[in-house]
Automatic annotation (TrEMBL):
The keyword Phosphoprotein applies. Pfam families: Response_reg. Keywords: Phosphoprotein. It comes from Spirosoma validum. One of its GO terms (biological process) is phosphorelay signal transduction system. SMART domains: REC (SM00448). Residues 16-141 form the Response regulatory domain. This is Response regulator. InterPro entries: CheY-like_superfamily (IPR011006), Sig_transdc_resp-reg_receiver (IPR001789), TCS_response_regulator (IPR052893). The modification 4-aspartylphosphate is found at D73.
Length: 154
């Protein structure tokens, strides 16, 4: 693909937010809030490390843009699974620059501390009501979409 063809392809393609969540009900709430607060993005849902790494490798191989943002549930279903995935992302030479926001029901200090130690970019305790999800997604959008300048991953 030529440089100009790649640029046109990138402009025509919606930006992607990768949502890594193993709970169908949580995914439903997140997807609905994203549709209302981020209608111009495509939310891609995955539930485990193998899926995520395969998807990201395919993005690179096919010259598709990597997700602009990753929302990662810490407990997949165990926190060690979330930490393992976070560590894999943040130590990879290409993926490490993608911002990863950890989402969890847990407000445990150890969960929060370890998530930042593994270079998570943010830690958010999951809202318990849909209206609060909307507010949370609006805040994520305002900061990670409107205020921050991110590097180009591909």
């Amino acid at each position: 693909m030529t440089k100009s063809a790649l640029a046109k392809h990138s402009k025509d393609q919606k930006a992607t937010i990768l949502v890594i969540e193993d709970n169908d009900d949580q995914w439903f709430l997140i997807r609905l809030a994203l549709q209302q607060r981020f209608p111009e993005v495509e939310a891609v849902w995955m539930s485990d490390k193998a899926q995520v790494m395969t998807y990201l490798e395919e993005c690179v191989q096919n010259l598709r843009e990597l997700p602009r943002l990753i929302l990662l549930d810490l407990y997949l279903p165990y926190r060690q699974y979330g930490w393992d995935l976070l560590e894999s992302l943040k130590t990879h030479h290409v993926y490490r620059e993608m911002p990863v926001i950890l989402l969890s029901q847990s407000s445990d200090a150890e969960d929060i501390s370890e998530s930042y130690a593994l270079r998570g970019n943010s830690y958010i305790v999951k809202p318990c009501a849909y209206e609060k999800w909307l507010a949370c997604i609006s805040s994520i959008r305002q900061y990670w979409w409107d205020a921050v300048t991110l590097p180009k991953y591909i």
